[in-house]
Amino acid sequence: KGRRVLCQWVKAKYAFMQAHCGEFRVCAMCRVLRVNRSGYYAWLCSPNSERAKEDDRLLGLIKHHWLASGSVYGHRKITTDLRDLGERCSRHRVHRLMRTEGLRAQVGYGRKPRF
Question: Domain named HTH-like: which ranges (predicted)?
Fold first, then answer.
């Protein structure tokens, strides 16, 4: 879990370096920020990882199925829908993506009182 936080920091450092590359030399910023120069140049070529690109694609499918269900389905039913389409993804990954986007299942519904 700690690596996830550190990786975010590295990406933030790379973005800072890109914004200030006109003012300072890249090798000096790498030394001060304690990041690898090769990592910075690799990030410049592809700022989003393959997993992030795949997550974005899956998120589009998840939103489509969630809206098609009337914002009712949770991560379990959406995972089943995706697997029926032939997508390979775990229930935990779908849950994580839905949680980060704020997509929640509708739990219960209001009942009319009986008189």
Answer: 54-107
In the chain, the amino acid numbered 59 is L
Does residue 112 have a pLDDT over 60?
A: yes
Quick: pLDDT tens for 62-84.
999 999 999 899 999 999 999 99
**Long-range pairs for 21-28: beta carbons < 8 A, 24 or more residues apart:** none
Which of 25, 45, 65 terminates a domain? The answer is 45
pTM: 0.65
Count: domains in the chain: 2
What is the distance in angstroms between the CA of the first residue and the CA of the last residue of the chain?
A: 54
